[in-house]
Amino acid sequence: MFKPQSYLFKNLIPELVSKYGDNDALGFIGEGFITYTQMGKQIDAMVAYMEALGIEPGDRVILYSQNMPNWGIVYFATQCMGVVVVPVLPDFNAFELDNIIEHSEAKAIFISKSLDFKIAKLENVSTELIIRLDDFDLLKESESSPLYDENEQPKGTYSPNEDIMSVLLYTSGTTGTPKGVMLSQRNIITNIYQSNHVQKITGSDRFLSVLPLSHTYENTIGFLLPLVNGASISYLRRPPSASVLLPALEKVKPTMMLIVPLIIERIYKGSILKKINSKSITRSLYKFRPTQKMLNRVAGKKLYETFGGQLKFFGVGGAKLDAQVERFLLDAKFPLSIGYGLTETSPLVAGGAPGKGKFQAIGPKVVDAEVIIHNPDPTTGEGEIWVRGNNVMLGYYKNEEMTKEVLTDDGWFKTGDLGSFDKNGILTHRGRLKSLIVGASGENIYPEEIESLINKFEFVEESIVIEDKGGLVALVHFNIEELEQKLKEMTSDASIKIEDKIVELKADLLEYINSKVNKSSKLQDIIDYVEPFKKTATNKIKRYLYKAEDVKK
Question: Of 113, 334, 507, 523, which sits with the fewest C-beta atoms within 10 Å of its C-beta?
């Protein structure tokens, strides 16, 4: 099992190259891999290239790209030099990138060809060094510009500091303005060690990467963690739509995979549940727990084969997993592991190995960190989750005020999340403190729990519950395409309009939800929200964008 002898990538990478030299490391599906030995050689060549470009320790370098092997090469090269890497989510638009360039004072940008068009939209490109990540060519070059040479060796020697900022991550989160999280090499390598205690990984394991590398969830657990254990990682050339993902799963047959809840929830609702509901007999049988379990097992076995049939770790994180979907995965005997963490904690805070979890809970805290429930409610045991350890960030870049709000003088990080521990030390996450709604009589209302019920309703794509004039309102995005298809199957009467069906659907949904929740959690109204909700990289709805007074009813 990986145990760091050093908290510097400069020392770690030669160890990995020596230990796993001939193992497959990184590659695009169907295009072959580079080995660990080749990876080490390419990292050295990239350090030499950055030297030639005039990039020095302490400089900030932006990585703005889709997932690819070269992403990892540049990431490791910056860490070996003591250059600060600034991974930017590929979904960030030109305006957001502009702000990050200015705020981080980036000296260079590595950008994938697929995102070139966004460079043209930048208003103030103060950065002269723009390098295409696909082939390391300069976008702005002259006759004297250096060329990348894969056989070049670094000329300088470097002594990075393990306790200063080495990674700067900008995240919009779900409740406010984008902020730069400062992580050190000690933070990150500590969390690799902590994550490694959750699941054993060997050099024969195969990871399929579908989440953005610029998010710390995929970066630490889906990139760095496999590599310290000699495993291989496969990347997709295109976004993971069903037409791209299905053949990739068949080709790679991954043993390990990380996803966010939205991906598996859509598979469950759009395929598994849809098929069960298509026949009256299976729809009726699914209402009873014994037969539901049997149907889940049969459907789950087929789904497991679709995922390549060799999964032994199926990690879900980034948001709360729907209870019905979790029940399906457990019945189907998927090797489910639910994790909880934040960018500010590098990221993992708690998680359990497959088969050792608890329904609708997360798992025990990671090793070598303190996790407490601050000021717990004496009745429920719920309170804010606080974390202290070497995986906790240094602070927010150029924002001492915000840093002081979340980091105490004695090192505790206030997560802003509500949770509780059971007697066995299993953590349960109840939602964001800022999204908590206090009812008229002082009751705690968790909107995520109501949304979970709404999202199970037929034709509902997603939802968000907000407060309005002392009551609760649900904004609901319906699956219009599915609804139209259903109408065509049910009737040939062209006079029945989709708008009328939505009015009927809203009334049924309101009655259904209010029959399932307690008095303080009843909804006053349901608003049809036409557009999909805006989301973070891990597909959490950006709640702060949605307020009742801004929604046209």
Answer: 507
CA 139 → CA 46, 79, 112, 121, 523, distances in Å? 17, 24, 11, 15, 54
Burial of 527 (0-12, 13-18, 19+ CB in 10 A): middle
How many C-beta neighbours within 10 Å does residue 275 have? 13
Q: Closest Cα to residue 166, out of 59, 14, 47, 42?
A: 59
**Who contacts 102 (Cβ-Cβ below 8 Å, separation ≥6)?**
124, 126
DSSP letter assigned to residue 520? G
Q: Is the dihedral of CA 436, 440, 444, 449 positive or negative?
A: negative
For residue 156, the SS3 value is coil
Q: CA-based angle 509:443:359, to the nearest 5? A: 65
Let me know: does 377 contact 383? Beta carbons within 8 Å: yes
Spatial distance between the Cα atoms of 438 and 362, rounded to a whole number of angstroms: 25
What are 447-471's pLDDT values in tens digits?
Answer: 988 998 999 898 999 999 998 887 8
> How many angstroms from the chain centroid is the CA of residue 430?
18
* Residues, the chain: 553
Are 462 and 477 in contact by the 8 Å Cβ rule? The answer is yes
Assessment of whether the complete model's pTM goes beyond 0.90: no
Is the pLDDT confidence value at 173 over 50? no
- β-bridge partners, 314: 257, 336
CA atoms of 534 and 480, how far apart (whole Å): 18
What is the spatial distance between Cα 183 and Cα 258, in angstroms, rounded to a whole number?
A: 22
Q: Considering Cα of 233, then 235, then 239, then 240, what sign does the dihedral take?
A: negative
How far is residue 431's CA from residue 345's CA, in Å, rounded to a whole number?
A: 17
**Phi/psi of residue 354, nearest 5 degrees:** -55, 135
**Confidence band of 36 (pLDDT split at 50, 70, 90):** very high
> Contacts from 282-285 at CB under 8 Å and sequence distance 24+?
none
Q: Helix, strand or coil for residue 358?
A: coil
DSSP secondary structure letters along 169-205: EEE-TTTS--EEEEEEHHHHHHHHHHHHTTS---TT-
DSSP E strands, 231-326: 232-235, 256-259, 313-316
Contact call for residues 434 and 416 (beta carbons, < 8 A): yes
Q: Per residue in 430-447, pLDDT tens?
A: 888 888 887 766 677 889
- CA 536 vs. chain centroid, Å, equals 8
